[in-house]
Amino acid sequence: MIRYAIAAAALLATASPISAGQTPATEAAAESPEAAALLNAYHFAFPLYTMARTRSLMPAINTLTYRTALADEKSRDVTTPNNDTLYASGFLDLAAGPVILTLPALPGRYHSVAVMSMATDNLAILGTRTGSQGGRYALMSTDYTGPVPADTIPLRLACRDCWLLARVIVNGAEDLGPASEALKGITIEAPATELTAFASPTPARPDGAAFLAAVKEVIARAGPSSTLAQQAASFTALEADPAEWSKALVPLTLELRSGLADAGDLVNGWSYPKFGIGTYEDDHLLRSQIALGGLGALPRVEAMYLSARTDAAGAPLSGAKAYTLRLPYNMPIGGFWSLTMYTQESDGRLFFVGNALSRFAVGDRSKHLRAERDGSTDIFIQANRPEGERVVNWLPSPTGPFVLVFRAYLPKAELLDGSFRLPPVTESERIP
Asked: How wide is the angle at C-alpha 394 spanned by C-alphas 393 and 395, nearest 5°?
């Protein structure tokens, strides 16, 4: 999951803090139909601007960029990095015809290739869950009427512009080379045709005019008969005075951030993703929350990301204390799981914690972990390195506040339906 939208981060960087209890935009919306219309239009438009901004930062269209190194504590380009997968990423323009995606056969190695609309809906996901045999896929717009390239599997997508994001698992440091080769086997071929570029700039700190221009261009490129255009027609505030948007953008984004905790269901101190994540339909509030806090999120059937900020007693997690998380044997996860430690910056961004072992996460691929006799595994969470054998199950924390993220790829029915829940993080005695 690519956390924390770039455009939103820039907006928030110059703003004053807001507490979760303050909801000025919501209060204004309750008193004014115009403010309510602006709030609703913002929830619809924010993901579109975020995707346009992200697209503008890519080196080229119809080209994949490969990230073949795992992140560490120095990685600050993307918040909430993972220590599990390598990525390939590229924005596609299907206007000139099919883009051919080649997916190698990768049995025994988790991988996924998600294709998302500019509204952040996952239109298609290929990979381990759908079959590891690989293949050549012709990605084409539903409006395309030309021939389907030979020896390809047609995949029709309800979009012109889309984002392809591939993930390939790394099974430890010694597997980085083979994982990189597997990732580079995912390729695309696009028609040799000059494409119409986006005309609207997407500045890091847009005013109302720039924000609206970029959003409207995304909608226009989708076409008048698209679902996106039909939805946009119901948000009259998109035609409001840009000056009104200029005044509202930062407060609206601050409020969106303050409501991120509501984007999940809290059980045992863990925030579980809501059912609509990754597909959204008409839930534009959830769509905008995930665009801010988890851009590129997969649907629950593919992966679930759980976060914890409090312990079993409801107290904030802090490196001033020590904790234990007892994970049961044989959790209902078909792919893999990991538990990752993050320190939180003042603006809300999350990054790895530097430590002597360069250990940023533990998981089912951690060969050093030792299980109890009943098969359960105790994870010891504290700032200081434990002496003795228990260091193998140590997850280093910062000295101050921290956040835990549990990633479960290919969750099974018990995790999806809520009959299985992660146990809480419990305060324990510090291990000297």
From this structure: 120
Q: Are 149 and 138 in contact (CB under 8 A)?
A: yes
Domain boundaries, the chain: 6-57+198-273, 65-189, 302-428
Decide if 171 contacts 179 (C-beta within 8 A): yes
Number of alpha helices (DSSP H) and beta strands (DSSP E) in the chain:
9, 20
Strands 161-169 and 350-351: unpaired
Among residues 416, 166, 139, 174, the alpha carbon closest in space to that of 299 is found at 416
Question: 302-428 belongs to which CATH class?
Answer: mainly beta
Homologous superfamily assigned to 65-189: Domain of unknown function DUF1254 (2.60.40.1610)
| 242-258 vs 284-293: helix crossing angle, rounded to 10 | 70
Report which secondary-structure segment, H or E, holds 54.
Answer: helix 33-56
**Scanning the structure block, which residue is given the tokens 């430590």?**
355
Question: pTM for the complete prediction?
Answer: 0.92
d(CA 40, CA 1): 25
Other C-beta atoms lying within 10 Å of the C-beta of residue 156: 16
Residues 353 and 317: their CA atoms lie apart, in Å, by 14
Q: Which of 198, 83, 100 is nearest to 155 (CA)?
A: 100
pLDDT of residue 312: 97
Q: What is the pLDDT of residue 79?
A: 84
SS3 182: helix
Of residues 208, 220, 198, 222, the one with CA closest to residue 61: 198
**SS3 letters for 2-22?**
CECCHHHHHHHHCCCCCCCCC
Per-residue pLDDT averaged across 73-77, rounded?
88
With a CB cutoff of 8 Å and minimum separation 6, the contacts of 222 are 118, 159, 160, 161, 228, 229
pLDDT, tens digit (0-9, with 9 covering 90-100), for 115-144: 999 999 999 999 999 999 999 999 999 999
Q: At what angle do helices 24-31 and 242-258 cross, to 10 degrees?
A: 130
Q: Residue 160's CB: how many other CB atoms inside 10 A?
A: 22
* Residues 31-42: tens digit of each pLDDT: 689 999 999 999
